[in-house]
Specification:
This protein has 568 residues and is mostly beta strands. It is built from six helices and 32 strands. This is Laccase.
Length: 568
Amino acid sequence: MMKLSFQALGFILFLSFIHSQAALLKYTFVVQETNYTRLCSTKSLLTVNGLFPGPTITARRGDTVIVDVINKGDHNITIHWHGVKQPRYPWSDGPEFVTQCPIQPGANFSQKVLLSDEEGTLWWHAHSDWSRATIHGLIVILPRLGTTYPFPQPDQEVPIVLGEWWKTDIQTVFENFVDGGGDPANSDALTINGQPGDLYNCSISGTTKIKVDRGKTYLVRMVNAAMNNLIFFAIANHSVTVVGSDGAYTKPLKSNYITISPGQTLDFLLEANQPSNHYYIAARLFNGQPSSRFDNTTTTAVLQYAGNYTPSSPPVFPGTLPAFNDRNASFNFTASLRSLASAEHPIDVPLTIKRTLFYTLSINAIPCPANQTCEAIRNTSRFAASINNITFDMPSTAILGAYYRGINRGVYGDDFPDVPPLKFNYTQTSGLNASLRLPEVATEVTMLKHNETVELVFQGTNLVAGIDHPMHLHGHSFYVVGSGFGNYKRKRDSLTYNLVDPPHMQTIAVPQNGWTAIRFKADNPGVWFMHCHLERHVSWGMGMVFIVRNGKSADARILPPPPDMPPC
């Protein structure tokens, strides 16, 4: 008995020590218009603190970060802390009209960012209209004091933010896209740390240069902040070793290229072990749908070794960068990721499932309304997107506030289907009934019990066009237990699940005309958005909401809202 008491006391002291280490950090984000020059022209763009990309938040595991967001711009804004679970505190999660109404011009909102078990690289970005094209930055979550990385200590850390650049104002791009109902205008360039690189006009002088010392190892923290595309990435004559994704550690994965989805983060080690020279770092879009328009350009930075030597001119280009349409390269990289699953960083894959969901992901078409000009499908329709044939209709007030106050009537319904309303050959390439393209437009949510274990299978369809869908879940991480091409068949495909060390993620690319199975425990009470992270798809309606009910104990209930929630 005495032994148990000492053990209990020791555990309590350990928890107290860990808690005492947690810090309260404060940042100020001023949203403002700032002039930037790229591609031979200057334009005003929305920034945070005048920076593009925006400032990096640096904290340690378990810290609390207060970010005072001051909107000095001309448009409404919200900020999302992508990958931060915000335990019991969805009020600062950020998606417009899901957890909050927007911060209006001239207003401010003090957002509390509660870090819990995240460790590694995450990011923050705007979550209203298309402002995230320029409103984004990294979140670096270091190990707790007294602990270390589960890999050799790097000599230095390097941020890489992949993005897109439009010569036109992004608000104009968004408005034209919404008005026409077709595809948006392609970006004019891809960027690495805000710069297009040597292969674009008027860009050589600004090309991002990453300086390294031969013999040293660098931890690269990368995010794909692009709006509408998966990206291939490679460094000439160098392989990398992936050690983390989405704020969780992975088993070391050595590769000579990377595939990264919009919204996803990756941490990798880069050894500067090649002859001293200049080497191109290059990135291009992956597009498995060749009939669609896309930005088929390549952005570059330069890996520049220190020392006295005559560098190659131009720098060496990475021959391992996959072709833009290499579907196997995209799938194989993502399918190779594994959780570290060590004693220090354990995982907890749900083995007994209480709720099984099957969600189809579709591009749809809505007939062009009378007296309108529409740009989709030979100018006869407007594009839409759906999950289980429901196109999410964003309400005009926040779902979270309505749920918390018990006034959901007229804001949302709770009849989102667990399975698609119609079964068909989801990946059939032709001959599908045109009526299948027409979705229901609604604001429906799925209710989950507290601590309910969930298996969710995403199934891509080929209704209008099959394409990869990077699906992102707010408020939770999930285990990616399986994926493949074609139609999912439970009796066959569940036998291939990885329940030992599946990657622990918040954003996963469902392959074109394929499926992905995830598992998670609904242990975070609140209102949580789930959506495709291709911006055009979420704008078309590929999103839905999970409401995780309160648990029975006081520490399993949604915390009260802050006093300065933005009004609707």
